[in-house]
Amino acid sequence: MNKGLFITFEGIDGCGKTTQIKLLKDYFESIGRTVILTREPGAKGLGEKLREILLNYDGEVSSNCESFLFLADRAQHIDTIIKPAIERGEIVLCDRHTDSTIAYQGYGRGVNIEQIKMLNNIATNGIKPDLTFVFDIDITTSVKRVGKEKDRMESAGLEFFEKVRKGYIEISKQEPNRIKLIDGSKTIEEISKEVLSIINKVNSES
Ligand code: TYD
User: Fold this and answer.
1) Which atom of ligand 1 is nearest to the CA of 13?
2) Could you tell me which of 164, 94, 82 has the C-alpha nearest to residue 126?
3) CA 191, CA 186: separation in Å to the nearest integer?
4) Whose CA is closest to atom 19 on ligand 1?
5) DSSP code at position 154
């Protein structure tokens, strides 16, 4: 049986991760692997209900409550989708995961980062991504790509997104083996090549 692999994709809104996830899925399938493409918040079922609240609720949401809702979604996601797929030897490509909560709720909203790390650990049962790609773009590019139709999180303002971006850069320095910071201003093809070369390097070392 193949060994399961868990890869997550991160970055501020509009960073281009969704395109790269699809390209990587095609690559893994072309070499005969089974791939699960999933996302946070809201993969399916209960998660979709939580996603609806997180992205569309228009009343007041405290930062702690927001963190716990993302974490609740994560706990359900890990137990019902991610862990079983890894155990079946599949490749899990996940659009956002634990580092989003550190970057958005921790660096962005100012929730205590050490506490978020601890809660992330509880939500994931200690399961960690084998590899994480952070696609870094500047805020002007993010604003242009997101456009006028903004959800609740995307409406948080420029200052917030500056903090989130800095957070991602910071955490990629703290865990350089797992988290790879990629320049998201390059072309889709250039980024895809870089992603593949990192994956092949990591695979050949393990
Ligand atoms: P989504 O529409 O999936 O955005 P994107 O395509 O950019 O991934 O919305 C997810 C939003 O939720 C996004 O603005 C980031 C935010 N988020 C957090 O703030 N904390 C989290 O833990 C997660 C998983 C997402």
Assistant:
1) 7
2) 82
3) 6
4) 104
5) G
Q: Could you tell me the two tokens for 67?
A: 């963190």
**Cα radius of gyration rounded to whole Å, the chain:** 16
* Residue 85 pLDDT greater than 90, yes or no: yes
Q: Is residue 106 part of a domain?
A: yes
**125 in Cβ contact with 83 (< 8 Å):** yes
CA angle 109, 115, 121 (to 5 degrees): 115
Largest CA distance in the chain: 49
**What residue's CA is closest to ligand 1, atom 10?**
41
Residue written as tokens 């929730």?
Answer: 111
Number of domains in the chain: 1
Cβ neighbors of 70 (< 8 A, separation 6 or more) are 40, 41, 54, 100, 101, 105
Tens digits of residue pLDDT in 41-61: 999 999 999 999 999 999 999
Residue 2 lies in a domain: no
Question: Among candidates 63, 166, 47, which has minimal Cα distance to 105?
Answer: 63
Cut 0.90: pTM above it: yes
Nearest ligand 1 atom, CA 108: 19
Q: What is the extent of the structural domain holding 125?
A: 7-205
Tell me, in angstroms, the distance from the centre of ligand 1 to residue 85's CA: 22
State the average pLDDT for the chain.
Answer: 96
Counting ligand 1 atoms within 8 A of each CB, the residue from 8, 10, 12, 13 with the most, and so the one to mutate, is 13
